[in-house]
Design a protein that fits this description.
- By secondary structure, this protein is mainly beta.
- The protein has one domain: Quinohemoprotein amine dehydrogenase alpha subunit, domain 2 (Lipocalin, Beta Barrel).
- It has one helix and eight strands; from the N terminus they run αββββββββ.
- The protein has an eight-stranded antiparallel beta barrel with strand order 1-2-3-4-5-6-7-8.
- Strand 5 and strand 6 form a beta hairpin.
- The longest helix has 14 residues.
- It is globular, with a radius of gyration of 21 Å.
């Protein structure tokens, strides 16, 4: 009986320890992201390299809204209706690397974005990979890639300067 109470005490003591005390991070914590990252951005992209000029636009102007809800970061575009949860890869000061995947039909589009915040702007690289799979047996048929140089201007949200 004494062993039972000791075991029960050990189990109950472990239950009152908060999850934050023992969180093992497989990735990067959203708490590491500078607050200035979140908000609305006007983003320009210029194609730097690709293996499929017919697939990827040479340049574009886009609108990103980066937001946080709990431990999830979302990138959305109110004009196109696109909305995706992003996966953080690296946060080192004002250097941020994140990616997102978007499946559609027999394709998978992976975006990996590396950017550096500076004042109310950012600059960086957006690497895209578009994989096409067979409708018959789902094997990978081709991979098209592109690398864009991107620049962002803050439209709304907290300033990196604290203004």
């Amino acid at each position: 009986m004494k062993k039972f109470f000791i075991l029960l005490l050990i189990l109950l003591t472990g239950a009152v320890v908060t999850a934050e005390d023992f969180t093992l991070k497989a990735g990067v914590s959203v708490n590491d992201i500078p607050k200035a990252f979140f908000g609305s951005w006007r983003v320009t992209a210029k194609l730097e390299d690709t293996n499929s000029y017919g697939t990827f636009k040479p340049q574009s102007i886009d609108f990103w809204t980066l937001s946080r809800a709990g431990d999830k970061v979302t990138l959305s575009n109110p004009f196109s209706g696109a909305n995706a949860e992003v996966s953080l890869k690296t946060v080192e000061g004002n250097l941020i690397v994140f990616s997102k995947k978007a499946p559609y039909d027999n394709k998978m589009l992976t975006d990996t974005i590396t950017l550096r915040l500076s004042d109310n702007t950012f600059s960086g690289i957006n690497t895209l990979s578009l994989e096409s799979f067979s409708l018959v047996d789902n094997h990978l048929m081709k991979t098209e890639t592109a690398r864009y140089v991107i620049k962002g201007e803050k439209i709304s949200g907290e300033s990196i300067l604290g203004n």
